[in-house]
Specification:
The complex is a heterotetramer of chains A (384), B (176), C (204) and D (401). Chain A is mostly helical and 384 residues long. Chain A is built from 16 helices and no strands. With 176 residues, chain B is α/β, with parallel strands linked by helices. Chain B has one domain: Beta Polymerase, domain 2, CATH 3.30.460. The chains are: A mainly alpha (384), B alpha/beta (176), C mainly alpha (204), D alpha+beta (401).
Chain lengths: 384, 176, 204, 401
């Protein structure tokens, strides 16, 4: 795109800037659209769980215009900054949260090679940047000048900082199996049938996936780990004093990070853009995105990725509307007493497994079967 | 155990403090002198055959008639009556314990009458006594936390006194 | 305007942000704002690393320093905050002391920087960008005990001795575990006391 | 999975943070109205809780001194506005006690029907708002769906959905409309299987158990000492229900009905339905038991309604013979407590012979149940405060009067 624009526009720096802006806008649209879809999804899923209909009228069928309507309503709300607040930090905090949630999209691949910024440390980058989101929450909670907000901020800090440890340990397992921190590489390594997915690689990765799921829910602050905004205890936690647009921004950040952890789960454990049946591979569409067939294959991959991610988000929503909230000490116990040792054990187990039985359970079984078959077919050759 | 036998049971140790009793009333009651109230309460709670472990309610009743003519017809001089409704969950019997306090301490209209608290006997009395203090204006001695409970702390007067008049204004709020 | 040096532009941008917010940390008198500025400053340094294509280092910078500052902030609020917005004012003496210490450090760094001959003049972008291979892979392999950069060592006996940074890595890990355990031990409830007495102790 | 917590009041924490005073309420999502709790906290640990009440105070007792008993009846609706029928019943029975009035058999059974339906509605709100206090929103919606059906029944009965003034002194305001019993039976038929859903999503939910079991343990002696009544008292294992153990005026209403008083006696609950078992972590008198007692009482109430409908259909007599609006009352005083959903609701009426009572006293069950809060909340975590307060099932209209 940059080359195209450079050819058209005379000052190249302008072309460069515009190209950059377009790319940013594209990503922003993805982040915001996903948030809007998830808000609608949350309303619908929660309504169905609660024996209601949810939005039905706004925008015709299924209330699909509900999120924009919500957004419009929230934009029209009075923007309140409490007298006791630290005005600068109060204003800045939502943007920090949203920026970090948005920056993660930079390194998140949507299909084979379809990633804004292909880093060879993609996983690490995502973990590092996603970790900054909590900073906005802490800042917002502190700057509100309200005790409930401060409580929310402190809980968020304690919780998210703790859960980063098992989360990172879980993420290390697929990295270890691939031998790369490049998310595209990790995704491609799971190509083929669904048996190649890392979640089915060996028993240890299977457990790791569930530990990852737990920690991911916790690190996005969703129920049953939504202690930072526990409405029955802390009014609304760090969000207590926020209203209107700033509140929306925090909300967007929450939904964006839900998307990110689900997408990360899809890439790391569920085969990413590789469907359960390698349709693209069976049709010999190729994997080079520059060719037409490769493009179609990638579109299929994008569909796969989105289905998996949305399914993950739906599960998170389902959890939220089913379970009561844990208490802070229980949340910390879950993390430090169960998740961290379990994740460490699974890491060690996965290391052992790859050492003893490389290629995964099913691949290994198939391999040994082939060897056995070969041995039966050609016993004489073997002796030579 | 009915009220009569309870009265008989109490009359041995507490005869000088027992004032009256009505065992035929809808709710049989025993009236005691206010000096003896805490001791009798403790006795009622602790004796194995009495075992009044549940204090339901403390009611303050202001017997007073602001109208001079009607006041002349009153049977008894103006006073405040405190009614303690008790029951026993083990023996399933009930009792209304009454005591009388003057409307003002030493007839000085600014001083509230005093009576010993039974909150050390039944913790339930703690809040009920605060309520009686708040609404009827009876001060309970030895109470751990004698504050108003329903009205604001800076409220003037005790609403359930018969001669209570609503203040015309409270913090700029017109009340009439 | 044909050849605008974007690399240089972003370098300057991140450098100025880093320096400006570092100054702001010094000048600010509110502890939370200080921490906030510090985070921005460290984030800009991470940006510099990304610019130099050292993504691993950049991510580490974000995770360790920015995350660390967050913890600092939490402790700052929890342990020092009196009233809603804690403020720290610096006296004149402190300013002088800080200026002397900071100036000495700056002088030393400048001297060191100018003494590197390669840095005397800016290189072209092409030269700077010519970093072959992925740095993180080499670093990762180094941590796991394989020194990719020393493979040209012809003597096998010498190569065996260079087992990478595995030992250092292990020591740091064990150290961190010990620190974690220690922190957990410190934060643990220890003595049993009568509640009332404890409460009285708290009241000055 | 989580070891039993040490009693925090005996623990000295090495890491001290600043003590903080926090206002929980009067505007707070989990105080169910305008209760204000002042928490003194050390980090996440609450060292002291002081309830402040009176935000809804309207001195209903003073109002009662200026109105005749039937005029006062609508005010009783506003006490426990989640169970207006039971409030009406308490007042009506108290005045009837003073008058020495006996109502017809038909009225008696009709009263049982509405009182028990009202109890179901109140317990549903209590139990599932409790889920809300713990962060589980869904059962709340389910409970309101069922409660809505009960309110529809009441609306058919008396035209209102919240403040009924249906049970009056001497009877009820009107007989059942045609086809009402059938509607009620339909409701019960669909409601009884639904109860299991609440058990599935709350009672036996692992997170719910962790949040409630062993939290806010109220010993039987302490419960009695503080005058706690109703499910709070029965949750502590005291087998005491005024429908069975009360004064004759109260128990007569439930004569020849079969039902069980829900309280854990000899380590087990009465069993006539496959309820979830008591989890090992639960201790008698904790939040979980209080919740459980309410959920089981709902079943008993439904059972009572079924019996009452049968008896009502067979009983004779008129139901609407209300006491005249401005008739002189006999001299005397009467105090009566009835088993309302929240606990024992007591009314006292003192009459000097005029149509207007000399003194009216309202003994509120939530008032006494609330007074135990500061005792239960000593040394718990902040998140436990809503869990404990919610388990007491408070209605501020009744506390503040």
């Amino acid at each position: 795109m940059t080359e195209l624009l450079t050819n058209i526009l005379s000052p190249s720096w302008l072309a460069y800037a515009i190209a950059a802006a377009i790319q940013c806008a594209l990503l922003l649209v993805v982040a915001l659209a996903s948030a809007a879809v998830f808000i609608w999804l949350e309303r619908k899923v929660s309504a169905r769980i609660q024996d209601r209909l949810g939005p039905t009228r706004v925008g015709g069928r299924f209330g699909w215009l509900q999120p924009p309507a919500d957004g419009l309503k929230l934009l029209c709300k009075e923007d309140i900054i409490p007298a006791a607040a630290d005005r600068l930090l109060f204003r800045v905090a939502p943007y920090i949260s949203f920026c970090s949630a948005f920056c993660v999209f930079l390194a998140l691949p949507f299909a084979n090679g379809w990633v804004a910024l292909r880093l060879d440390v993609g996983v690490f980058f995502i973990l590092a940047v996603a970790g900054i989101e909590v900073f906005g929450v802490i800042l917002g909670g502190y700057a509100s000048g309200s005790k409930w907000s401060l409580y929310g901020a402190m809980r968020e800090a304690a919780q998210v900082v703790s859960y980063e440890v098992p989360l990172a340990l879980c993420v290390v397992v697929p990295v270890l199996l691939t031998g790369s921190m490049d998310l595209v590489e990790i995704g491609n390594r799971q190509a083929g049938w669904f048996t190649n997915w890392y979640v089915l690689h060996d028993p240890f990765t299977f457990v790791t996936f569930w530990v990852y799921a737990t920690c991911a829910v916790a690190s996005t602050n969703r129920a049953p780990f939504d202690l930072a905004e526990a409405e029955s205890e802390l009014v609304a936690g760090f969000l207590t004093e926020y209203s209107g647009f700033r509140w929306v921004i925090f909300f967007m950040a929450e939904y964006a990070s839900m998307f990110v952890v689900s997408g990360l789960a899809a890439v790391l454990f569920l085969g990413g853009w590789n469907g359960p049946i390698p349709i693209a591979g069976l049709l010999h569409l190729g994997s080079d995105p520059d060719t037409a067939t490769g493009f179609i294959a990638n579109l299929l991959g994008l569909g796969n990725f989105l289905i998996k991610t949305v399914a993950g988000v739906t599960c998170v929503i389902w959890l939220r509307w089913t379970l009561p909230r844990l208490r802070i000490d229980q949340v910390m116990t879950t993390c430090l007493k169960y998740c961290v040792p379990l994740a460490s054990a699974m890491l060690a187990g996965a290391v052992l497994w790859t050492y003893l039985c490389p290629g995964g359970l099913i691949a290994r079984a198939r391999h040994s079967l082939t060897i056995a078959a070969e041995q039966q077919h050609a016993p004489t050759q073997e002796r030579k | 155990m009915n009220a009569q036998s309870i009265h008989a049971r109490l009359s041995r140790p507490f005869r000088p403090w027992l004032v009256a009793g009505d065992f035929e009333a809808i709710d049989p009651w025993i009236e005691v002198k206010r000096e003896g109230l805490p001791d009798i309460a403790r006795y009622l709670r602790d004796q194995r055959d009495l075992w009044f472990d549940l204090l339901h309610c403390i009611t303050g009743v202001d017997h007073f008639e602001p109208d001079q003519q009607k006041a002349a017809q009153m049977e008894r001089p103006p006073h405040i009556e405190l009614i303690y409704h008790l029951s026993s969950t083990t023996h399933r019997h009930r009792l209304a314990l009454k005591t009388r306090v003057p409307r003002f301490l030493e007839e000085e209209p600014s001083r509230l009458p005093e009576v010993s608290s039974v909150s050390s006997v039944w913790s339930a009395a703690e809040w009920h006594e605060r309520e009686v203090f708040d609404l009827c204006g009876v001060f309970f001695l030895n109470h751990p936390d004698m504050r108003r409970i329903l009205c604001p702390e800076d409220w003037v007067g005790h609403p359930l006194r018969r001669d209570y008049r609503l203040p015309a204004e409270y913090h700029g709020i017109q009340s009439r | 305007m044909e050849a605008i040096n974007w690399h240089g532009f972003f370098f300057l941008f991140f450098a100025i942000v880093a320096c400006a917010f570092a100054m702001a940390v010094v000048v600010a008198d509110n502890i939370v704002r200080m921490a906030c500025y510090l985070v921005v400053s460290l984030g800009a340094v991470a940006g510099l690393y990304f610019l130099a294509q050292a993504e691993f280092l950049g991510a580490v910078q974000l995770m360790v320093y920015v995350g660390g500052t967050m913890v600092l902030l939490v402790f700052g609020v929890m342990l020092t905050a009196r009233g809603p917005l804690a403020s720290m004012r610096t006296g004149g003496g402190q300013w002088i002391m800080a200026a002397i210490a900071g100036g000495a450090l700056l002088a030393m760094l400048l001297q060191a920087a100018f003494s590197v001959s390669d840095w005397a003049a800016p290189k072209t972008i092409q030269e700077q960008a010519a970093v072959e291979g992925s740095p993180s892979a080499r670093l990762g392999l180094g941590l796991m005990g394989v020194r990719v950069d020393q493979l040209e060592q012809p003597n096998l006996m010498l190569r065996r001795g260079m087992s990478g940074h595995l030992l250092a890595f292990e020591i740091i890990s064990v150290h961190l575990v010990v620190v974690l355990v220690g922190a957990a031990y410190l934060a643990r409830a220890k003595r049993r006391l009568d509640h009332k007495q404890a409460k009285d102790d708290q009241r000055p | 999975m989580f070891s039993e917590r040490v009693q925090p009041e005996n623990v000295e924490f090495d890491v001290h943070t600043d003590e903080m005073l926090i206002n929980m309420g009067p505007q707070h999502p989990s105080t169910h109205g305008v209760l204000r709790l002042v928490l003194r906290t050390d980090g996440e640990i609450v060292t002291e809780v002081t309830p402040h009440i009176g935000y809804l105070h309207r001195c209903v007792e003073k109002i009662g001194e200026n109105l005749t008993p039937r005029q006062f009846l609508p005010y009783t609706d506003r006490l426990d506005y989640l169970a207006g029928m039971n409030m009406n019943l308490g007042w009506a029975l108290t005045v009837e006690k003073l008058l020495g009035l006996k109502v017809s058999e038909k009225t008696r059974h009709l009263r049982v029907i509405v009182a028990e339906l009202s109890r179901i509605a109140s317990h549903l709100v209590a139990a599932c708002c409790y889920g809300l206090d713990l962060g589980s929103f869904t059962p709340f919606m389910w409970a309101f769906r069922e409660r809505e059906l009960i309110l529809n029944l009441f609306e058919d009965l008396c035209g209102t959905r919240l403040t009924y003034s249906y049970i009056t002194v001497g009877g009820v305001t009107d007989d059942l409309p045609a086809g009402w019993l059938q509607k009620c039976a339909t409701f019960l038929d669909q409601f009884e299987p639904v109860i299991d859903e609440f058990h599935a999503v709350l009672t036996s939910n692992a997170v719910f158990i962790r949040r409630t079991a062993g939290i806010g343990v109220l010993s039987p002696t302490m419960a009695l000492d503080y005058g706690c009544t109703g499910p709070v008292l029965r949750g502590s294992g005291v087998d005491w229900d005024l429908r069975r153990d009360g004064e004759p005026f109260c128990t007569e209403m439930y004569e020849d009905y079969t039902y069980q008083v829900i309280a854990e006696t000899d380590g087990k609950y009465p069993q006539d339905h496959p309820y979830p078992p008591v989890p090992p972590a639960a201790r008698l008198g904790d939040c979980w038991h209080r919740f459980y007692v309410r959920m089981l009482e709902v079943v008993q109430s439904a059972f009572l309604v079924r019996q009452a409908m049968e008896k009502y259909a067979q009983a004779g007599g008129k139901v609407d013979e209300p006491f005249p609006l401005k008739k002189k009352l006999p001299k005397g005083e009467a105090y009566l407590e009835t088993e309302a959903p929240k606990g024992q609701m007591g009314f006292m009426i003192i009459s000097d012979g005029s149509p207007v009572p000399y003194r009216v006293r309202v003994r509120s069950s939530s008032f006494c149940n609330l007074s135990v809060t500061s005792e239960l909340c000593r040394g718990v975590l902040v998140a436990d405060v809503p869990a404990i307060v919610g388990s007491l099932d408070l209605v501020l209209g009744e506390i503040d009067r």
